[in-house]
Specification:
By secondary structure, this protein is of the alpha/beta class. The chain is 25% helix and 27% strand. Strands 3, 4, 5, 8, 9, 16 and 17 form a seven-stranded mixed beta sheet that branches. A six-stranded parallel beta sheet has the order 12-11-10-13-14-15. α4 (149-159) packs across α5 (177-187).
């Protein structure tokens, strides 16, 4: 039996449950959860904001733990090995998208907290390809957020071919943005932080930002026209899209990982500078491994606050308040 915290309705309180996961699939692993980060996606799913939540609902998709059982066809992992598990728990492995290495774009991909139970639990299961070995040098207590928030902002660096000579802006200095600043600074880029909170300037600079822009000051924004190779949008709010596209250099990219409802940009704002708008969902297993190696090399670690798993409702309330600094992590005490 697996012990977990579950909600029976939208926006409901998370309460202890036990469930029988059945026989372990031959190509799956079972993970004893040590730590599980809390992502805003957990809250969105709890609230059924995206109309795809099944109840009872067990959140949790930033998981770090030790493998406790292996399916008979799993030969690449070992019992007791530390692994991480993020948003995806399975992909078909046979479609052209998977064969090309883009498992996270597989149209049959299974998500850890969509239609199945997640990691606010003492155990969780997944296909072995998505159980990513954790480097020994990484702190397992803080590594969980890398498997969602971390790869979400690292993948755009790879897919947009960002170079150490690139100038990159990051909109939003929160759970995603603080990791983006650290990754981009270590990558060698000239990094500009955009925020509506001027009091975050000192912290943004400590995280690696070379410049800080108060986005409530349109005069400062307009002076940056044609300055950036990429602007990474990490916030879930509507923006002055045309203004931000104007800040891109020719061939620049406005890359979205924050789930705003809609985007409206005049076509000529893109055409005349051969600019593009793109987005991405996390990353494939190979890119996750690269991200972890990069984090070890540059000593990058999410800034976290820790709660016990049994304090999960207190932690979720902290998330609702918008006051985490910067990621919340549950330590399993079930």
């Amino acid at each position: 039996m697996i012990k977990a915290y579950s909600a029976s309705e939208a926006k409901g309180e998370l309460k202890p449950i036990e469930y029988d996961p059945g026989e372990l699939c031959e190509d799956h692993v079972e993970i004893d959860v040590s730590y599980c980060g809390i992502c805003h996606s957990d809250l969105s799913m709890l609230n059924n904001d995206w109309n795809m939540t099944n109840y009872p609902f067990v959140p949790g998709h930033e998981i770090v733990g030790r493998i406790s059982a292996l399916g008979r066809r799993v030969g690449s992992l070992q019992i007791g090995q530390y692994v991480g598990l993020g948003w995806f728990s399975q992909s078909c492995m046979t479609c052209l998208t998977c064969v090309e290495g883009d498992h996270h774009l597989c149209h049959q991909a299974e998500r850890v907290i969509v239609g199945r139970h997640g990691g606010f639990a003492n155990k969780v299961r997944c296909h072995y390809a998505w159980a990513i070995p954790l480097p020994n040098q990484l702190n397992p207590a803080a590594a969980g957020p890398l498997f969602c928030g971390g790869i979400t902002v690292f993948n755009p660096i790879i897919i947009n071919n960002i170079k150490p000579t690139s100038s990159v802006g990051v909109i939003g200095i929160g759970g995603l943005g603080h990791l983006a600043l650290m990754f981009l600074s270590a990558w060698g880029c000239e990094v500009t932080a955009f925020s509506t909170s001027p009091d975050k300037q000192m912290e943004a600079e400590k995280l690696g930002a070379h410049h800080f822009i108060d986005t409530q000051n349109n005069d400062k924004l307009s002076k940056l026209t044609g300055s950036f190779d990429m602007i990474l949008d990490t916030v879930n709010v509507e923006l002055d899209w045309d203004l931000y596209v104007s800040l891109l250099r020719p061939k620049g990219t406005f890359h979205i990982v924050g789930a705003a409802d809609s985007i409206s940009i005049p076509a000529f704002s893109l055409i005349m500078g051969q600019k593009s708008i793109s987005g991405s969902p996390l990353g494939n297993p190979a890119t996750i491994i690269k991200m972890l190696d990069f984090a070890v090399r540059h000593k990058i670690e999410p800034i976290i606050e820790t709660y016990l798993m049994t304090q999960v409702n207190d932690a979720m309330e902290k998330l609702r308040s918008g006051k985490p600094r910067f990621r919340l992590v549950l330590e399993n005490d079930l």
